[in-house]
């Protein structure tokens, strides 16, 4: 579904991604993990086609560079880490922007578009927020609204940049479970960046560990979340043990005092 070959991105005179390969099958969930500045967001932006890059991005057998904006928006939905939100827009109208690729030029949204938005808001626990202005929301509420816009696109590929950072424990679980349900029910292909390594290991099929713009490990959660790899690339002292379903749980270990 997504094939990335030899992807390199140069920003500020520096290679921030350097020859990265990614293969994600239809219905697969890939979590991109790595330390701050590793290039995770850059990878998502390049796959989304909003950053100049070298190398090849193929989405559903089509070269990413050949897609027109509306075609791309029907194929890939992207929820950025820190989007600029128009503060006076209502939650409903902001989520409705996700339907733009389906609304005719100079046309209006259909009743079906409005039903889809109502459904997405309900699934994210946002029904009561529909008439609120996005500038008046908390960080976690805003994050769910950004996700609502992406889900409203009903694209077969979902790129989520740190979808849970501002969310409390329950909402983290709600959002990741929802993405997982959509993936299994509708066959969505998902790439998320995630700082929480335990969550990444619990939900994703495959992990890609980036460090310094390069791919340093790729595989099943237990193959990537090892003490050696996490210790080396995050410069962290951790204890890793098998959790639910044998998937690893990563604990930070306090140093000697
Ligand atoms: N517009 C830019 N100009 C110059 N350098 C940039 C630009 N955007 C990003 N970078 C640099 O590229 C590197 C990769 O950034 P990126 O946002 O992809 O990292 P990340 O892995 O997502 O980090 P984090 O975990 O902190 O979100 C960083 O060193 C960053 O400073």
UniProtKB/TrEMBL annotation:
<protein>
    <submittedName>
        <fullName>ABC transporter ATP-binding protein</fullName>
    </submittedName>
</protein>
<keyword id="KW-0067">ATP-binding</keyword>
<feature type="domain" description="ABC transporter">
    <location>
        <begin position="2"/>
        <end position="237"/>
    </location>
</feature>
<keyword id="KW-0547">Nucleotide-binding</keyword>
<keyword id="KW-0813">Transport</keyword>
<dbReference type="InterPro" id="IPR017871">
    <property type="entry name" value="ABC_transporter-like_CS"/>
</dbReference>
<dbReference type="Pfam" id="PF00005">
    <property type="entry name" value="ABC_tran"/>
</dbReference>
<dbReference type="InterPro" id="IPR003593">
    <property type="entry name" value="AAA+_ATPase"/>
</dbReference>
<keyword id="KW-1278">Translocase</keyword>
<dbReference type="InterPro" id="IPR027417">
    <property type="entry name" value="P-loop_NTPase"/>
</dbReference>
<dbReference type="GO" id="GO:0005524">
    <property type="term" value="F:ATP binding"/>
</dbReference>
<dbReference type="InterPro" id="IPR003439">
    <property type="entry name" value="ABC_transporter-like_ATP-bd"/>
</dbReference>
